[in-house]
Design goal:
Blueprint: H1 2-5, H2 10-29, H3 33-45, H4 47-69, H5 75-98, H6 101-120, H7 131-148, H8 152-160, H9 166-190, H10 196-220, H11 225-245
């Protein structure tokens, strides 16, 4: 009990607030919560703990959301991307433990901001979701996910830029994370990177995230396509700009 109490401080309270906002984002959009948490959690906990905390929280909420979206997932595309991402995770994990902490924090924020701005311009990927494109996106995403917890920017650019509905995109994001988060947790556990401190912090933050994800899912059912897109991109731009300009 003492070890848990020692982790409850202003830093954790700030992290809980961020987790709640990120949970709303995840429940509403099906994606983007890691992009909200990572730029701030890297400053609070360091890069390795940030990845552990985020993937542990995300996998639980992914399981929470899966029953409601599984019938809309395009497994042909998502399966190809997911398997490729898993194969490239060792590269990202190497970067995680060998790159300077501050450089990693700024890189995370810059990635978030750049991808959000590209999507805000209205640019859409016009090509087909074929195997080569899905493999390329999965490779980049897998390396980024293991290095920063942010595997979603290339996936967002690839999927959100298509003509698919918000419901299909939200389902595809959830299915992709079900594959990749499970693999990343197993990889980090085998490497001994899931230690008591981030494990405890993830457990303390999880209730805030889960409650918000539930509320976000309810909000999604009442929203329009335009609201979905603008809320998603607006939050990501704010967080990315904070991380770059801090």
């Amino acid at each position: 009990m003492q070890s848990i109490l020692s982790l409850i401080d202003v830093t954790l309270l700030a992290a809980a607030l961020i987790a709640f906002v990120a949970g709303l984002m995840r429940g509403f959009a099906g994606v983007g919560s890691g992009m909200l948490m990572a730029p701030i959690y890297v400053l609070l906990f360091g890069p390795v703990q940030t990845v552990v905390i985020i993937v542990l929280i995300e996998i639980v909420v992914t399981a929470q959301l899966m029953p409601g979206v599984i019938r809309n997932i395009d497994w042909r595309v998502i399966g190809t991307m997911g398997v490729t991402a898993v194969l490239f995770m060792p590269l990202g994990n190497w970067l995680l433990v060998n790159v300077n902490t501050d450089a990693m924090a700024r890189a995370v924020a810059a990635i978030v901001l750049a991808f959000a701005l590209v999507l805000l311009t209205g640019w859409r990927y016009a090509g087909e979701k074929n195997a080569p494109a899905s493999i390329a996106v999965g490779a980049i995403s897998g390396a980024m996910m293991a290095a920063t917890s942010l595997g979603n920017p290339p996936v967002m650019l690839y999927l959100l830029s298509s003509r698919d509905s918000a419901a299909v995109n939200r389902a595809n994001f959830t299915g992709y994370f079900a594959i990749t988060l499970t693999a990343l947790i197993l990889w980090m556990a085998a490497r001994g990177q899931i230690t008591p401190a981030p494990l405890t912090r993830a457990g303390l933050l999880l209730p805030f995230f889960m409650l918000a994800a539930y509320l976000g899912a309810r909000l999604f059912r009442k929203s329009s396509e335009g609201v979905y897109r603008h809320v998603t991109l607006g939050l990501l731009i704010c967080v990315g700009a904070f991380g770059v300009l801090r």
